[in-house]
Amino acid sequence: MEVPNHILLGAVRDAIKEGHTATILVRGWSMRPFLEHQRDKVVLDSPADAKLHDAVLAEIAPGKFVLHRIIGIKQNKEDHACDEITLMGDGNIRGTELCLRKDICGTVTHYIRPNRTIKADSRELMKDIRLWIRLRPIRRFLLIIYKAII
């Protein structure tokens, strides 16, 4: 039985608020090439320290969740919870989502692939993520090549 995202991810959000971590199977292709649909899992933990380039689970509208990367933060000097966060999927070539820091439900701490687990803050992964972000102007072509070889 497949649980609808708004129910499953709402429960994940609530569990993280209570101090737990959650491991979820990735659905969708918007985080390619770092995460693959129904192949990879992620471990989510408290969003308290979410920062630029982190992958996060955010509720961008009531019951609408995305697992995307933070590509921008506009700080609110009066209330840190109201920082404006810009999100974008690694596999997206355009289009972003906006939310407030308080709408971030969890931060990815580990990427779980079939043969290994990678810490989200590992030096090698962060280097690859920063490169991928810089390659955004040619991402369309890189994703076409990636899809052809995977």
Q: Topology, pairings included?
A:
Elements: H1 5-17, E1 22-25, E2 41-45, E3 55-61, E4 64-74, E5 84-88, E6 97-100, E7 104-113, E8 116-119, H2 123-134, H3 139-149
Antiparallel strand pairs: 1-2, 2-7, 3-4, 3-7, 4-5, 5-6, 7-8
Could you characterize what this model shows?
The model has no long low-confidence stretch (mean pLDDT 96). The protein starts with a helix and ends with a helix. The longest helix is centred in the first third of the chain and has 13 residues, at 5-17. It contains 3 helices and 8 strands; from the N terminus they run αββββββββαα. 24% of the residues lie in helices and 33% in strands. The chain has one domain (5-149): Umud Fragment, subunit A (Ribbon), CATH 2.10.109.10. Strands 1, 2, 3, 4, 5, 6, 7 and 8 form an 8-stranded antiparallel beta sheet that branches. It has 150 residues and is an alpha+beta fold.
